[in-house]
Amino acid sequence: PAEEKAQLLQNSEYQERMVESTFLYLTLDLPTAPLYKDEKEQLIIPQVPLFSILAKFNGSTEKEYKTYKENFLKRFQLTRLPPYLIFCIKRFTKNNFFVEKNPTIVNFPITNVDLREYLSEEVQAAHSHTTYDLIANIVHDGKPSEGSYRIHVLHHGTGKWYELQDLQVTDILPQMITLSEAYIQIWKRREEDETNQQGA
């Protein structure tokens, strides 16, 4: 209740604290994959939009964290947008016995991802460029313990996408990239004078 909440917020242990910290990459949490089956008893792979998992950084979405001593809520908001952003999609969870992989497909556009809404109003004023284009996408295929990796890379000069796995290099349509189990993504901030050569 609001009254009880207001009372608790008077105690130091419940008061909000703001901490600013640098980051190497942004971790995006996937929702728990539901184990739905279709009429042929085959598992249905769930999907989630990129903007749903980016909502973690909108400054208002709360996430609960638990330790052996306490549990607390955190909210995240971006205070600066660097020239390059790395997203790490949290596919793997460990428990005491084994590692599990979440197969949820993340639906994302390859170009024009605008992160303006994840900045506070004051910070927005200082950022004239807030749009990003994908330049690399690392995919994990298979089981957590014995899977393999592929990478999709944009060739900047031609605007063509290539898929690399071991020593094999093949070209790939941009539409195929979004169907993969993306694990790590690298995004480049678009400057005003840049034109989009990706054709996606």
Automatic annotation (TrEMBL):
<dbReference type="InterPro" id="IPR001394">
    <property type="entry name" value="Peptidase_C19_UCH"/>
</dbReference>
<protein>
    <recommendedName>
        <fullName>ubiquitinyl hydrolase 1</fullName>
        <ecNumber>3.4.19.12</ecNumber>
    </recommendedName>
</protein>
<dbReference type="Pfam" id="PF00443">
    <property type="entry name" value="UCH"/>
</dbReference>
<dbReference type="InterPro" id="IPR028889">
    <property type="entry name" value="USP"/>
</dbReference>
<dbReference type="GO" id="GO:0016579">
    <property type="term" value="P:protein deubiquitination"/>
</dbReference>
<feature type="domain" description="USP">
    <location>
        <begin position="1"/>
        <end position="190"/>
    </location>
</feature>
<dbReference type="InterPro" id="IPR038765">
    <property type="entry name" value="Papain-like_cys_pep_sf"/>
</dbReference>
<keyword id="KW-0378">Hydrolase</keyword>
<dbReference type="InterPro" id="IPR050185">
    <property type="entry name" value="Ub_carboxyl-term_hydrolase"/>
</dbReference>
<dbReference type="GO" id="GO:0004843">
    <property type="term" value="F:cysteine-type deubiquitinase activity"/>
</dbReference>
